[in-house]
């Protein structure tokens, strides 16, 4: 019976797309993230290696480990001008879609920013509002539950998720921004602050993101889409003077259509090593073999067993037996 169980959670920030564990994690992301909200993996890899040192935004990708094994991928983006972190993706293998796992990794990523002294104004994430919230994807359903537990609030204002390129038409939809301030919960947000955040996301980030991937005509088409969404949002505030309310949900009342598991985290039991079954007999037999070989060598050299030789044999045996006892005791302690 096991009387000690443990899990080791870890994240690793990666900066090279050739990193072996990054490639494993990226594969998990591709296989578990719905197409309508999935950024192309080659684009992520490109910016992973080319956003460092930029003045507009920087991509941070993380490999998620559980007990030393890669189980997921996460990506966040830091926008320098407004100092916001966009929490973009957190994808894990199907059998690890556990509420505790999501919360732990979210906390570790926040700790990464804190430990590296990166100044943050807000954490931001998009949640689909397709069909007034009735047609949202499974990942967004998961995110709603986790965001609630992490004390994110919904900004009650118009927002559009921009299309992921020019060929993913399902990715352009009405959404809500969920926000978390580093110092605690805010009940409202000034409309100018909200517009500044959106402008930063649209033009500091997404506008620049697609520059390397689209031809000139395609890029102009994409910019028209950005401008249209931005104008629509800005015009919705023409007569608005009051601060925008930030709504915090009752987590227990959130419909968990994604069926995030509340069960214990899967344990991958370590197989006990059986090597000691070979080691112990070897330790027992070795002195006998050495004694036999030693005697044969003396016979060949025509040397008799003197007191000195006997003492040498005694030393060999007395050194071996305690080693054997220590080894057995150590094995029992480990079990």
UniProtKB/TrEMBL annotation:
PROSITE patterns: GNAT. InterPro entries: Acyl_CoA_acyltransferase (IPR016181), GNAT_dom (IPR000182). It comes from Aminipila butyrica. This is N-acetyltransferase domain-containing protein. It comes from the Bacteria. One of its GO terms (molecular function) is acyltransferase activity, transferring groups other than amino-acyl groups. The chain crosses the membrane at residues 275-293, 313-330. Residues 12-165 form the N-acetyltransferase domain. The lineage of its organism: Bacteria, Bacillati, Bacillota, Clostridia, Peptostreptococcales. The keyword Transmembrane helix applies. Keywords: Membrane, Transmembrane, Transmembrane helix.
